[in-house]
Amino acid sequence: SSELTQDPPVSVALGQTVRITCQGDSLTSYYASWYQQKPGQAPVLVIYGENKRPSGIPDRFSGSSSGNTASLTITGAQAEDEADYYCNSRDSSVKHLGVVFGGGTKLTVL
Amino acid sequence: EVQLVESGGGLVQPGGSLRLSCAASGFTLSSYSMNWVRQAPGKGLEWVSYISSSSHTKYYADSVKGRFTISRDNAKNSLYLEMNSLRDEDTAVYYCARGILETTFDYWGQGTLVTVSS
């Protein structure tokens, strides 16, 4: 199956900008979606498609894509953004529908 | 308000079976595809299975193919996951998640813990 590779743990100073990346062959054909997960909670969708935000997600969250890399950018990180972030996309290695998740990136806001 | 509530988790011995349920409310279940995603303790997310809105199409991760069966009852606003021949590595929190695109899940339940252990 396809793989999505995410950054190791990342830290950002309060109010600064941070970018988290997700790499994989499938991203040359399919968009990534991004999920935020805080300890003990279910994941929350923050970005999908070509930089779309679900209702209620602050506009400091944005997404972009280039080649085999998708990126999630938080502009002006807040303390409440500290969480694990996961990307996912379609598994391009199978004919039927398959879904692959990245391993996650832990974001610490300092 | 969209709500997804999983139930049915618990402790089961290796080789045993378990049936998970997901009760949906606040939206028309028959209009959406649904998925199961799991998360082993301290690990990342792993997609398990997909079912189309009409149940016509079902897909599974290789790790559960032949052992798990996804189903739904739109009239009862419910999604199910029948799990057989359970293994230690199936131990995880299992989430049901609504699909808005093939691989985009916009609402998730709170999860139900399945522990496979002797």
| Helical content of chain A (DSSP H or I, runs of 4+) | under 10%
The shape of chain A, in one word, is globular
Q: Give the helix proportion of chain B (percent range).
A: under 10%
N-to-C SSE series of chain A? EEEEEEEEEE
- What gyration radius of chain A follows from the Cα positions, in whole Å? 13 Å
Give me the count of strands of chain B. 11
Q: Whole-number average pLDDT of chain B?
A: 97
**What count of helical segments of chain A does DSSP give?**
0
Notes on the protein architecture:
The complex is a heterodimer of chains A (110) and B (118). Chain A has 110 residues and is mostly beta strands. Chain A contains no helices and 10 strands. In chain A, strands 2, 4, 5, 8, 9 and 10 form a 6-stranded mixed sheet that branches. In chain A, strands 1-3-7-6 form a 4-stranded antiparallel sheet, with no helix packed on it. Chain B has 118 residues and is mainly beta. Chain B has no helices and 11 strands. In chain B, the strands form 2 sheets. In chain B, strands 2, 4, 5, 6, 9, 10 and 11 form a 7-stranded mixed sheet that branches. Chain B is globular. The model of chain B has no long low-confidence stretch (mean pLDDT 97). At the A-B interface, strand 4, strand 8 and strand 9 of A face strand 5, strand 9 and strand 10 of B.
